[in-house]
């Protein structure tokens, strides 16, 4: 990562620290655009480079200028490092994040950095807090935006060819991007709330008793009974039961998609004995939605059928490249096969989950708000275990933004092969301690809020929490 | 017979016994207790040939014809006393020395009643069954005495004897009831009578067969169905001492005519003479249940016994082969599975030929149930399951496989539990457990057997699914996976890149946790780093720290290894040379420095000096340190 700083005034920031904060404005989305420089090479055709620009209702000239600036920065940094090493640009008021998912295609996310309005000598002054924006978190958010698009529409590269219809194809792609991202951006989570978990793209697995896990896992033998079904993924409420062989990023995208698809039509009665989840506006005979999955290093389209029985959601993938959309009889056949079995399984899982939640509720009540926070991440499965409430309103239950940013900076990128053992202790400016340990592809963080703690106290306390909370994983370096 | 199509599930054994056929001179008797066949020529005067239970066991002797045709002749279990009945109210006892009778010492035991028959219950004890009851006599050859030991007085019309269970079924004159009586050495126990439903019902001797099915005495009564007129066999089971025999099963024959019944390998075989077919019934299989009585249809449509070619003694090498007449009127059947053709002079055991039978049962689940109860079923069942997973495999068969696995493992788990109990019971009372070694189930298919049939299907697209199903079934019955199966599951999961499943299996401890399995995982850690993590997790679970240390040293993670070594072995026991060498090999000065300093600190704590003891042989590393960090070491030396 190579942040490029332009015109950031650190001294001014310090000087303003003492002034009284009137109001704080959190990180917001300024703009988001997709462009490909190879599309508008000729003079006067610059607008053709822009495949998508949000917000749409601004002057074309501004759009062209923004894209041009991004292009310039990318090219400029490219002279020092390899081409796609340009990751982020910080200005006083904005943070720009760059992402090149496919050769030539760039996605740029421009954020308004948080600002604090202060009263200084009777005059209202805006103090921009660029340092509060964590590049890695938002870069991951940007990457997820791309993955979501790819999940629904496939890779960008495939949409454009060099043939005669190039212009037509460009327009078609632009329209598609517009249609997708306008509705997608309308529903995204508040950017100010994005945290380490968003960065990791971690999916939570349901902890089940082993017999139930095997039963759920072996439900995938459905794929053998119905050869048309290539893969199946099972979820219980929001948690993944069996992820099949989907790669982590696809599973995350699927998870997000399923959550939005099923909560929209969450009517318990409909799914008592199992039914396919369909969009209500959709016609009965309409083909199922197509999604794109990275399967054995190839991105291919699949039909996605969502079946739900009670709280269990089953996603079935059918090869869309080779076969036509399934006939209604196929749905019927699947339904009669799966319905009773899946609803029975769902009931058993529900019983197990309620049993587990009784146990954990008892535990939860004992831990009060001020108790130390922890976060454990398994790099291999992307599972996390934490007592940080992500959507908490009160800061007691959550942790300050700057601590979150520090963790995000400390977190090791998941893709790296070697996993060294590390131990780090960081003290933040607002007197928080972050203790990080890493071993055997697992990262462990403990966040302590004791201002007067000594290094020894912190070590002791962290050790205690590691021993207390790490029961499932083998952490041999306690 | 033409409808048999060459498939026969019942055959006559090859270890048959030849004997002199019945003629004017020769009488033939069979003792079903000892499975001995007696060919008596001229009332014994010109010789008695006793054969059985196999062809080679022959006793030949002569005895004088003492008048009166022989009615019954039986050896005591040790072949030392021969009981012969020539009159209806007397039994003679002939004592034997070796294989020859002591003809001068014959005791004739006379009673006042009408003897229906006698059975040996012990080497020196014989039970006489007569019209007035059952009486046990002890024979004392030394004293030339016969002494009554025990008697049960009951008026009897006829009786049947089951030698396996030592039970006589008596048909009483009063009320026509059937009373089973347990006759053992010195003991006669009257058991509750057989409930025939209708008190006035009269059962003929020829309609009753006694047999043992699944270790339980069964009274099989042939009778015609009042509604259809078709013949049925009522099966009354003697479920235990004190419990009244209960009509549990009805075998629907759907035929009329003459029948004879055998039991082979816990199957009830009903022979029908008119159609020359034998019907097979297994009361362990499910059937239609009405009023607690299970109605069974034959397992398959009736087929004839496999034709038997008898090689006649001949001088020419190819010999002459005589096709024996099956279901002949000269046949006499004895329990459990003996067929005697008195005219031909041949005795066979009926055997089940299981392989053709498998082809006749198309329902694989029923076939599994059936094979699990057959003494020779194991190999066949393994073959059937193997075929299901191999050339007959279809995705739709997976639920069938799941059920089959469950059926197999249910039996497997009961055996595992039993063995476990025996092992845990051992310390408290050692003597008793050694005495009663538990008998294994008829068909026990263990994991190792299954792995044998999984191996041929390794590396197929569906292998993972099949293995996971088997694992699920094992888990259902609380059996843990063993090494071979665990490795196979791991290989398949790795091949399909199902690392997620692998991780969860290991975290649930569903695979065997051993050094061997963990090292197997480690050997494949180049496939994906997930495997490396899982392997170390497993090693951590079994506390195999020394292996983890080696692994980490191998990966160049010297600091990690050192930290673990310190925690697991204790500071004093960490070998300095090993870690210094590994640190040196990383060619990373920082690592080397850290490791070196760690040991210096250790030296300080243990020996109160920074210097390494000579025994640790670290001279080369001390030199390396001194050359690499020259200034640093100079400083330190001054301080110390």
TrEMBL record, chain A:
<dbReference type="InterPro" id="IPR043987">
    <property type="entry name" value="CCZ1/INTU/HSP4_longin_1"/>
</dbReference>
<feature type="domain" description="CCZ1/INTU/HSP4 first Longin">
    <location>
        <begin position="30"/>
        <end position="154"/>
    </location>
</feature>
<dbReference type="Pfam" id="PF19031">
    <property type="entry name" value="Intu_longin_1"/>
</dbReference>
<dbReference type="Pfam" id="PF19032">
    <property type="entry name" value="Intu_longin_2"/>
</dbReference>
<dbReference type="GO" id="GO:0035658">
    <property type="term" value="C:Mon1-Ccz1 complex"/>
</dbReference>
<dbReference type="InterPro" id="IPR013176">
    <property type="entry name" value="Ccz1"/>
</dbReference>
<protein>
    <submittedName>
        <fullName>Uncharacterized protein, isoform B</fullName>
    </submittedName>
</protein>
<dbReference type="InterPro" id="IPR043988">
    <property type="entry name" value="CCZ1/INTU_longin_2"/>
</dbReference>
<feature type="domain" description="CCZ1/INTU/HPS4 third Longin">
    <location>
        <begin position="369"/>
        <end position="465"/>
    </location>
</feature>
<dbReference type="InterPro" id="IPR043989">
    <property type="entry name" value="CCZ1/INTU/HSP4_longin_3"/>
</dbReference>
<dbReference type="GO" id="GO:0016192">
    <property type="term" value="P:vesicle-mediated transport"/>
</dbReference>
<dbReference type="Pfam" id="PF19033">
    <property type="entry name" value="Intu_longin_3"/>
</dbReference>
<feature type="domain" description="CCZ1/INTU second Longin">
    <location>
        <begin position="229"/>
        <end position="339"/>
    </location>
</feature>
<comment type="similarity">
    <text>Belongs to the CCZ1 family.</text>
</comment>
TrEMBL record, chain B:
<dbReference type="Pfam" id="PF21029">
    <property type="entry name" value="RMC1_N"/>
</dbReference>
<protein>
    <submittedName>
        <fullName>Uncharacterized protein</fullName>
    </submittedName>
</protein>
<dbReference type="InterPro" id="IPR009755">
    <property type="entry name" value="RMC1_C"/>
</dbReference>
<dbReference type="InterPro" id="IPR049040">
    <property type="entry name" value="RMC1_N"/>
</dbReference>
<dbReference type="Pfam" id="PF07035">
    <property type="entry name" value="RMC1_C"/>
</dbReference>
<dbReference type="GO" id="GO:0035658">
    <property type="term" value="C:Mon1-Ccz1 complex"/>
</dbReference>
<dbReference type="InterPro" id="IPR040371">
    <property type="entry name" value="RMC1"/>
</dbReference>
<dbReference type="GO" id="GO:0031902">
    <property type="term" value="C:late endosome membrane"/>
</dbReference>
<dbReference type="GO" id="GO:0005765">
    <property type="term" value="C:lysosomal membrane"/>
</dbReference>
<dbReference type="GO" id="GO:0010506">
    <property type="term" value="P:regulation of autophagy"/>
</dbReference>
<feature type="domain" description="Regulator of MON1-CCZ1 complex N-terminal">
    <location>
        <begin position="28"/>
        <end position="145"/>
    </location>
</feature>
<feature type="domain" description="Mic1">
    <location>
        <begin position="374"/>
        <end position="614"/>
    </location>
</feature>
């Amino acid at each position: 990562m190579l942040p490029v700083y332009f015109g950031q005034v650190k001294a001014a920031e310090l000087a303003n620290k003492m002034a009284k904060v009137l109001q704080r404005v959190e990180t917001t989305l300024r703009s988001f655009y997709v462009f490909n420089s190879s599309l508008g090479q000729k003079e006067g055709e610059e607008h053709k480079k822009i495949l998508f620009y949000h917000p749409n209702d601004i002057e074309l000239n501004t759009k062209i200028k923004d894209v041009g600036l991004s292009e310039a920065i990318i090219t400029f940094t490219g002279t020092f490092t390899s081409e796609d090493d340009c990751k982020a640009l910080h200005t006083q008021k904005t943070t720009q994040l760059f992402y090149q998912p496919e050769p030539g295609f760039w996605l740029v996310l421009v954020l308004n950095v948080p600002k604090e309005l202060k009263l200084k000598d009777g005059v209202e002054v805006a103090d921009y807090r660029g340092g509060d924006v964590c590049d890695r978190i938002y870069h991951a958010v940007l990457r997820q935006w791309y993955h979501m698009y790819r999940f629904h529409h496939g890779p960008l590269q495939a949409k454009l060819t060099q043939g005669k219809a190039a212009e037509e194809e460009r327009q078609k792609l632009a329209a598609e991007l517009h249609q997708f991202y306008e509705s997608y951006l309308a529903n995204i989570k508040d950017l100010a709330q994005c945290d380490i978990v968003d960065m990791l793209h971690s999916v939570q697995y349901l902890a089940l008793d082993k017999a139930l896990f095997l039963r759920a896992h072996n439900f995938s033998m459905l794929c053998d009974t119905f050869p048309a079904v290539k893969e199946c993924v099972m979820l219980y409420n929001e948690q993944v039961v069996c992820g099949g062989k989907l790669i982590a990023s696809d599973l995350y995208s699927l998870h997000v998609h399923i959550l939005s698809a099923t909560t929209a039509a969450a009517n318990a009665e409909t799914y008592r004995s199992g039914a396919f989840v369909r969009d209500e506006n959709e016609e009965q005979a309409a083909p199922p939605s197509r999604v794109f999955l990275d399967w054995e290093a190839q991105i291919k389209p699949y039909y996605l059928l969502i079946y739900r029985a009670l709280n269990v959601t089953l996603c079935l993938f059918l090869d869309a490249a080779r076969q036509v959309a399934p006939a209604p009889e196929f749905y019927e056949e699947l339904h009669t096969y799966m319905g009773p079995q899946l609803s029975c399984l769902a009931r058993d899982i529900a019983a197990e989950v309620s049993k587990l939640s009784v146990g954990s509720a008892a535990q939860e009540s004992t831990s009060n708000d001020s108790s130390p926070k922890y976060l454990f991440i398994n790099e291999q499965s992307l599972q996390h275990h934490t007592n940080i409430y992500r959507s908490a309103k009160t800061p007691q239950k959550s942790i300050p933004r700057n601590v979150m940013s520090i963790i995000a900076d400390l977190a090791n990128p998941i893709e790296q092969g070697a996993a060294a053992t590390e131990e780090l202790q960081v003290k933040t400016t607002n007197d928080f301690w972050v203790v990080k340990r890493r071993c055997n592809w697992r990262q462990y963080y403990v966040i302590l809020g004791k201002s007067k703690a000594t290094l020894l106290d912190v070590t002791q306390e962290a050790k205690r929490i590691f021993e207390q909370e790490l029961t499932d994983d083998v952490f041999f370096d306690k | 017979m033409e409808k048999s199509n060459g498939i026969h599930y019942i055959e006559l054994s090859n270890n048959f016994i030849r004997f002199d056929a019945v003629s004017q001179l020769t009488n033939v008797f069979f003792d079903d207790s000892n499975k001995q066949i007696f060919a008596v020529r001229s009332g014994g005067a010109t010789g008695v040939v006793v054969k059985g239970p196999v062809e080679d066991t022959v006793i030949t002797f002569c005895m004088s014809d003492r008048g009166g045709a022989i009615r019954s002749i039986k050896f005591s279990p040790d072949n030392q006393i021969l009981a012969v009945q020539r009159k209806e109210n007397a039994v003679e006892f002939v004592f034997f020395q070796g294989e020859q009778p002591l003809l001068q010492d014959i005791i004739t035991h006379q009673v006042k009643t009408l003897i229906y028959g006698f059975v040996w219950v012990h080497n020196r004890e014989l039970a006489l069954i007569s019209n007035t009851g059952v009486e046990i006599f002890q024979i004392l050859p030394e004293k030339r005495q016969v002494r009554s030991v025990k008697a049960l007085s009951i008026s009897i019309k006829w009786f049947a004897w089951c030698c396996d269970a030592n039970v006589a079924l008596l048909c009483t004159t009063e009320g026509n009831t059937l009373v089973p009586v347990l006759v053992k050495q010195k003991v006669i126990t009257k058991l509750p009578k057989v409930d025939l439903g209708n008190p006035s019902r009269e059962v003929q001797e020829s309609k009753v067969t006694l047999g043992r099915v699944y270790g339980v005495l069964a009274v099989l009564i042939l009778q015609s169905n009042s509604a259809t007129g078709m013949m049925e066999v009522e099966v009354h089971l003697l479920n235990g001492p004190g419990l009244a025999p209960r009509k549990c099963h009805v075998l629907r024959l759907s035929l009329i005519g003459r029948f004879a019944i055998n039991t082979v390998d816990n199957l009830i075989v009903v022979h029908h003479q008119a159609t020359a077919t034998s019907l097979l019934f297994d009361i362990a299989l499910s059937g239609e249940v009405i009023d607690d009585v299970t109605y069974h249809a034959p397992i398959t449509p009736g087929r004839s016994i496999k034709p038997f070619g008898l090689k006649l003694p001949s001088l020419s090498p190819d010999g002459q082969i005589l096709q024996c007449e099956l279901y002949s009127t000269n046949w006499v059947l004895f329990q459990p599975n003996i067929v005697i053709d008195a005219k031909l002079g041949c005795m066979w055991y009926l055997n089940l030929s299981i392989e053709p039978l498998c082809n006749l049962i198309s329902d694989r689940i029923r076939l599994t149930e059936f094979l699990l109860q057959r003494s020779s079923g194991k190999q066949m069942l393994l073959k059937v399951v193997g075929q299901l997973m191999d050339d007959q495999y279809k995705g739709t068969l997976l639920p069938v496989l799941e059920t089959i696995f469950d059926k197999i493992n249910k039996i497997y788990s009961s055996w595992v539990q039993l063995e476990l109990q025996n092992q845990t019971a051992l310390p408290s009372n050692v003597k008793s457990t050694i005495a009663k070694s538990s008998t294994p189930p008829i068909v026990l298919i263990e994991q190792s057997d299954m792995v044998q049939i999984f191996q041929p299907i390794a590396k197929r697209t569906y292998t993972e699914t099949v293995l996971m199903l088997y694992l699920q079934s094992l888990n259902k019955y609380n059996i843990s996976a063993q090494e071979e199966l665990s490795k196979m599951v791991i290989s398949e999961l790795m091949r399909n890149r199902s690392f997620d499943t692998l991780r969860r299996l290991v975290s649930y401890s569903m695979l065997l946790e051993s050094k061997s399995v963990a090292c197997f995982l480690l050997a494949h850690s180049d496939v994906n780093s997930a495997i490396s993590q899982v392997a170390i997790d497993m090693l951590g679970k079994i506390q195999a720290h020394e292996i983890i240390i080696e692994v980490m040293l191998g990966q160049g993670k010297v600091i990690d290894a050192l930290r673990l070594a310190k925690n697991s072995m204790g500071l004093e026991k960490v070998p300095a040379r090993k870690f210094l060498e590994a640190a040196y090999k990383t060619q990373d000065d920082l690592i080397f420095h850290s490791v070196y300093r760690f040991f210096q600190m250790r030296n300080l704590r243990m020996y109160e000096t920074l210097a390494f003891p000579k025994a640790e042989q670290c001279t080369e590393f001390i030199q390396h340190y001194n050359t690499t960090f020259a200034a640093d070491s100079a400083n330190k030396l001054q301080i110390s």
